[in-house]
Specification:
SH3 type barrels, 5-stranded antiparallel beta sheet, 261 residues, alpha+beta, rod-shaped
């Protein structure tokens, strides 16, 4: 049985039948819904099971949806689900603030270079710490500290000009020969330098040092706690003149740093 045409409703015979869009058409009835241009199977476009040409094919347009209570509820639910997923991802990735970097040849070379530099610096610091500070570096702070302590210990009444007694003859001895060296009974002779020294006189008093003292001027002598001072002569209430028995140096010394034996 022959079907009817979808447009005109008449019987469609096989010689003029067009089967398209789930319907049967006459060839003459298969045309655009808008401009009535005859179409075929190659140039038609179907929309809601109706044929259209390319120029008059209906364009889809979006329509605005009102914010109904149901739509608002769905929107809020979607936002809550999004926040829950975000928090879950955040908690999973918490504490993983680093990214895996592939060990490329360039990165391996840079890492090796940094390790070598670190090893070199470590060995340099180790050698410096093992060798220790040089003699000049170690002696300078100690000398400064001793001078500061001696100036602190000296009372105010002792800050008086130094008077060297004119009665005793004055000689000079090098600072390097504070401790004379003897080799096989031979003793090196003293050479004249800037430190003043007086020949020891007979019958002088003997004193013992109770504090360490470092000479602040050229006419003073340095001594340590326990040293014996011989041939001591009183200059004034604050200063004396004598010879350190341990070193052989002669000069002025503060009276409150020693005690009589």
């Amino acid at each position: 049985m022959n079907p009817n045409c979808a447009r005109c409703g008449k019987i469609v015979y096989p010689t003029e039948k067009v089967n398209c869009l789930d319907k049967f058409w006459h060839k003459a009835c298969f045309h655009c819904e808008t401009c009535k241009m005859t179409l075929n199977m190659k140039n038609y476009k179907g929309y809601e099971k109706k044929p259209y040409c390319n120029a008059h094919y209906p364009k889809q347009s979006f329509t605005m949806v009102a914010d109904t209570p149901e739509n608002l509820r769905l929107k809020q639910q979607s936002e809550l689900q999004s926040q829950v997923r975000y928090k879950e991802e955040f908690e999973k990735n918490k504490g993983k603030g680093f990214s895996v970097v592939a060990d490329t040849p360039e990165l391996q070379r840079i890492k090796k270079t940094q390790d070598q530099i670190s090893n070199i610096k470590y060995h340099e610091e180790f050698e410096k710490s093992r060798m220790g500070p040089s003699g000049g570096e170690g002696m300078e702070p100690e000398r400064r500290d001793s001078q500061d302590s001696s100036s602190y210990r000296r009372p105010l009444e002792q800050q008086q000009p130094h008077h060297v007694p004119t009665s005793a003859p004055v000689y000079q001895q090098p600072q390097q020969q504070l401790t004379a060296q003897s080799y096989g009974g031979y003793k090196e002779p003293a050479a004249p330098v800037s430190v003043q020294r007086s020949a020891p006189g007979g019958g002088g008093k003997r004193y013992r040092a109770v504090y360490d003292y470092s000479a602040a001027d050229e006419d003073e002598v340095s001594f340590q706690d326990g040293d014996t001072i011989v041939n001591v002569q009183q200059i004034d209430d604050g200063w004396m003149y004598g010879t350190v028995e341990r070193t052989g140096d002669t000069g002025m010394l503060p009276a409150n740093y020693v005690e009589a034996i």
